[in-house]
C-alpha cells in the first residue's frame, strides 16, 4: 500500500474515534473505582433507560476493549428490546470503531443496525459502518485487487450509479479511498468535492458521516497544498465535535471529552498561521496550551513534536527561536509526516536570520522531499491519466452500448410490427378455424364428461383396492404377530419339559439326551426367529417399522452379534471380529443394526461347514458412511446370483438350501437405515457381503 494512503487510513481511523471518544481527568485507579461504584448501583436501576445510561457510563470510563465490547453488546440488546433506537444505533457506531480492523465484526454490526426500524439515524449508522468497511477493503487487498476494484467502482459510478443518497456516499467514499491509493491529484479532489456535496446535503444529525469525511478531507487538501480548504475543513471538524459534545450533554454522558482531538485540530489550524488573524492565532495558541495542561495525550504529543510552539514563533517572526525548536524536534518520529513543512520553515528562518548553514540544510532537506514528491506526483499523474483514459473508454463503451440499444430498439419495433401483422393474419385464420371447431366442441365436452365419470369410477375402485390391500397387510401382520405369541408359549413348554426329562434320566443317558434336547431348543429358536423375521418383514413392507437413532458403538454391536450367533456355528468353523478393529461411534438404530448383523452372520453360519466367519468394519467419514463386511469360507455365491439372493425364499440351485428370509430382511432393514447390502464379487474363497450405512441418519419416530 502507498505510504500516503497508509497515512490517511491511519489518521482517518484514529479520528473515527470521535465516536469511540476519549476520556481524561481521572487516573486509571479512579476510573476503576467509578466503574465498580456504577456496577454496584446497576441492581438498583428501575428502568431499562436508567440501566442503559449506567452501562454507557461504564463503557465511556473503561479502557478495556473486551469489556467495552461486552458492555456495548448488552446496551444494544437492551435498546433493541425496548425500542430505543437512538441508544442502540449510537452504541453500534462506538462498537464499529472497536471493530474497525475486523471486517466480519463490522458486518455483524451492520446486520444489528438493520434490525431497528427504518429512520434517518439508522441509515446514517449503516452508512457509517459501511464506510469503515471500505477502509478494510483497501487495507487488506493486494495491489492487483485494488486496481481491479477501482475499475469496478469507476464503471459503477459512470455507467450505473445508485439512486439512493446513502448508497452514493458509500460508493464515492470507496472510490476516493481507491483513487487516493493511486493518485493525490485533481481527480481525487474532484471526487472528494462530489462526496462533500452529498454529505453536506444530509441533515445535521449526520455527524458521524461528516466527521469521517472531514477527517479524511483535511489530510488530502493539506497534502495538495490547498491550505485554505484544509483550514475550512478543520473548522467543520470543530463544529462536528461541538455538536457531539452537545449531544453527549443532552444524553447525560458526563465521562466523555474530546480534548485530544481538539489539540490535533488546533495544531493543524495553527500550521496555517499565514491565513489566520493575530486574534485567531492567539486564541488557538491559548486553547492548545489549555489542552496541554489538562490532557496527557496532548501534552506528550507537544513535548515530542513542538509543532504548536514552532508555528506560534513563526507567526510572531521570532525566527531564531523557531529555528532552535525546528532543530530540536525535526528528527522526532512524531514529525515525520510534517518534514516538508519543517524544512520549508527552516529555509525561511535561515534567510531571515542570515544563518547560511540552516538555510543550506533546509534547502537540501526540502529539495530532497520535493524531488521525492515530484517523482511520486509524476507517477500519480501517469496513473491518473490512465484512470481518466479508462473512464473515457468506459464512457465510449456506454455510448456504443446506448447506440446499439437504440438500434436494437428500432429493430425490435420493426420486428414487433411485423409480428403484429403476422399475428393478425393468424388470428383471422384461427377465427375461421375456431368456428369450424366450435361445432365439434359440444360433442368433445360430452365425451370428456363421460371419460371423467369413467375415470372417477376407476379411481374409486383403485382406492377401494388399495384400502383392501392395506387392510390385508394389517391383517397379515396381526395374524403373524398372534401366531408368534401363540407358538411362543408351547415352544417354551417343550424346551422346559425337554430339560426336565434330561434331569430325570440316569446319568449315563444324559449326554445322549442332552444332544437331542439342544436340537429341539435350536429348532424351537429357529421357528421363533422365523416368526420374528416374517413379522419384521411385514412391518417393513407396511412402513410401520420404527427407527430410533442414537449414539452407537459399532464394535459393541459387532461383539454382541458374534456372541449371539456363536452357538449356531458348526464345530469346525471359527467366528470372530477382525483384529485391531477400533471403537467407532455412529448415529444409528442399534437394534436394527443388530438385526442386520444377526441375519448376515446367520446366513454365513448356515452355508459354512468349516473355516472361518470374519466380521469387520471400516469408517469412511469423508463420505459419511461405514462399511461392515461378513466374510466366510463357505460354498460361496455365484456373481449371476448377486440379485437373486435378496429375493425371499430364493434357492440358488437344486442341491443347496434356500436363503429363506434372512438376506431379504437384512436388505430391508439396511434400506430403512439409509444404506444397502451388496455381494463382493471379487472375493472367491467363499462369500463376502458388505453392509454400507450412513454414519448419521435423520431422527424419526
UniProtKB/TrEMBL annotation:
Domain Histidine kinase: 482-697
Regions annotated as coiled coil: 431-475
UniProt GO MF annotations: phosphorelay sensor kinase activity
PROSITE patterns in the cross-refs: HIS_KIN
Organism domain of life: Bacteria
EC number: 2.7.13.3
Keywords from the UniProt entry: Coiled coil, Kinase, Membrane, Transferase, Transmembrane, Transmembrane helix, Two-component regulatory system
Reaction equations catalysed: ATP + protein L-histidine = ADP + protein N-phospho-L-histidine
Enzyme class: transferase
Transmembrane segments: 411-432
Keyword match RNA-binding: no
InterPro entries linked: HATPase_C_sf, HATPase_dom, His_kinase_dom, HisK_dim/P_sf, Sensor_HK_Regulatory, Sig_transdc_His_kin-like_C
Protein name per the record: histidine kinase
Organism this protein belongs to: Candidatus Amulumruptor caecigallinarius
Lineage, highest ranks first: Bacteria, Pseudomonadati, Bacteroidota, Bacteroidia, Bacteroidales
Amino acid at each position: 500500500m502507498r505510504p500516503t494512503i497508509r497515512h490517511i487510513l491511519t489518521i482517518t481511523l484514529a479520528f473515527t474515534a470521535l465516536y469511540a471518544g476519549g476520556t481524561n481527568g481521572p487516573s486509571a485507579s479512579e476510573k476503576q473505582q467509578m466503574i465498580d461504584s456504577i456496577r454496584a448501583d446497576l441492581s438498583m436501576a428501575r428502568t431499562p433507560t436508567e440501566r442503559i445510561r449506567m452501562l454507557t457510563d461504564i463503557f465511556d470510563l473503561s479502557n478495556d476493549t473486551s469489556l467495552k465490547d461486552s458492555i456495548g453488546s448488552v446496551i444494544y440488546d437492551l435498546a433493541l428490546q425496548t425500542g430505543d433506537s437512538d441508544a442502540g444505533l449510537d452504541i453500534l457506531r462506538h462498537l464499529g470503531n472497536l471493530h474497525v480492523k475486523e471486517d466480519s465484526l463490522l458486518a455483524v454490526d451492520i446486520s444489528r443496525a438493520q434490525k431497528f426500524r427504518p429512520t434517518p439515524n439508522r441509515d446514517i449508522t449503516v452508512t457509517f459502518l459501511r464506510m469503515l468497511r471500505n477502509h478494510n477493503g483497501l487495507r487488506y487487498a493486494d495491489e492487483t485487487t485494488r486496481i481491479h476494484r477501482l475499475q469496478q467502482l469507476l464503471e459503477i459510478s459512470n455507467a450505473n450509479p445508485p439512486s439512493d443518497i446513502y448508497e452514493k456516499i458509500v460508493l464515492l467514499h470507496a472510490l476516493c479511498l481507491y483513487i487516493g491509493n493511486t493518485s493525490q491529484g485533481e481527480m481525487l479532489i474532484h471526487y472528494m468535492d462530489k462526496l462533500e456535496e452529498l454529505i453536506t446535503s444530509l441533515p445535521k444529525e449526520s455527524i458521524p458521516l461528516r466527521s469521517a469525511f472531514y477527517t479524511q478531507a483535511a489530510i488530502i487538501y493539506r497534502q495538495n497544498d490547498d491550505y485554505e480548504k484544509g483550514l475550512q475543513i478543520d473548522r467543520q471538524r470543530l463544529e462536528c465535535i461541538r455538536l457531539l459534545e452537545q449531544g453527549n450533554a443532552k444524553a447525560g454522558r458526563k465521562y466523555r471529552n474530546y480534548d485530544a482531538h481538539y489539540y490535533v485540530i488546533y495544531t493543524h489550524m495553527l500550521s496555517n498561521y499565514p491565513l489566520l488573524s493575530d486574534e485567531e492565532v492567539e486564541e488557538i495558541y491559548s486553547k492548545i496550551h489549555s489542552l496541554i495542561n489538562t490532557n496527557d495525550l496532548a501534552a506528550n504529543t507537544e513535548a515530542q513534536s513542538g509543532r504548536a510552539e514552532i508555528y506560534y514563533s513563526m507567526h510572531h517572526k521570532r525566527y531564531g527561536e523557531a529555528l532552535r525548536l525546528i532543530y530540536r524536534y525535526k528528527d522526532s518520529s512524531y514529525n515525520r509526516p510534517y518534514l516538508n513543512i519543517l524544512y520549508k520553515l527552516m529555509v525561511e528562518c535561515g534567510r531571515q536570520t542570515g544563518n547560511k548553514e540552516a538555510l543550506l540544510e533546509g534547502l537540501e532537506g526540502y529539495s530532497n522531499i520535493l524531488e521525492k514528491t515530484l517523482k511520486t506526483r509524476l507517477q500519480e499523474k501517469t496513473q491518473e491519466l490512465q484512470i481518466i483514459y479508462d473512464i473515457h473508454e468506459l464512457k465510449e463503451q456506454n455510448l456504443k452500448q446506448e447506440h446499439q440499444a437504440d438500434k436494437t430498439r428500432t429493430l425490435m419495433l420493426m420486428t414487433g410490427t411485423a409480428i403484429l401483422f403476422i399475428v393478425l393474419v393468424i388470428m383471422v385464420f384461427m377465427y375461421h378455424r375456431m368456428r369450424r371447431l366450435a361445432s365439434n366442441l359440444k360433442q368433445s365436452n360430452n365425451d370428456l364428461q363421460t371419460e371423467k365419470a369413467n375415470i372417477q369410477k376407476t379411481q374409486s375402485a383403485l382406492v377401494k383396492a388399495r384400502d383392501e390391500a392395506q387392510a390385508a397387510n394389517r391383517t397379515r401382520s396381526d395374524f403373524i404377530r398372534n401366531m408368534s405369541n401363540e407358538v411362543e408359549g408351547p415352544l417354551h413348554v417343550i424346551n422346559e419339559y425337554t430339560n426336565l426329562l434330561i434331569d430325570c434320566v440316569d446319568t449315563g443317558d444324559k449326554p445322549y439326551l442332552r444332544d437331542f434336547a439342544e436340537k429341539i431348543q435350536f429348532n424351537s429358536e429357529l421357528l421363533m426367529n422365523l416368526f420374528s423375521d416374517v413379522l419384521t418383514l411385514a412391518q417393513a413392507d407396511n412402513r410401520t417399522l420404527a427407527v430410533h437413532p442414537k449414539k452407537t458403538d459399532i464394535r459393541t454391536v459387532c461383539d454382541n452379534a458374534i456372541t449371539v450367533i456363536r452357538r449356531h456355528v458348526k464345530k469346525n468353523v471359527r467366528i470372530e471380529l477382525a483384529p485391531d478393529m477400533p471403537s467407532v461411534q455412529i448415529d444409528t438404530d442399534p437394534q436394527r443394526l443388530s438385526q442386520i448383523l444377526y441375519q448376515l452372520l446367520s446366513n454365513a453360519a448356515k452355508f459354512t461347514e468349516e473355516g472361518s466367519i470374519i466380521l469387520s468394519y471400516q469408517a469412511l467419514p469423508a463420505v459419511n458412511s461405514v462399511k461392515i463386511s461378513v466374510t466366510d469360507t463357505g460354498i460361496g455365491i455365484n456373481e449371476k446370483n448377486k440379485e437373486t439372493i435378496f429375493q425371499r425364499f430364493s434357492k440358488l440351485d437344486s442341491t443347496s438350501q434356500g436363503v429363506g428370509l434372512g438376506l431379504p430382511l437384512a436388505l430391508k432393514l439396511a434400506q430403512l437405515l439409509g444404506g444397502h447390502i451388496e455381494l463382493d464379487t471379487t472375493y472367491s474363497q467363499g462369500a463376502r457381503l458388505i453392509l454400507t450405512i450412513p454414519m448419521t441418519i435423520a431422527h424419526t419416530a
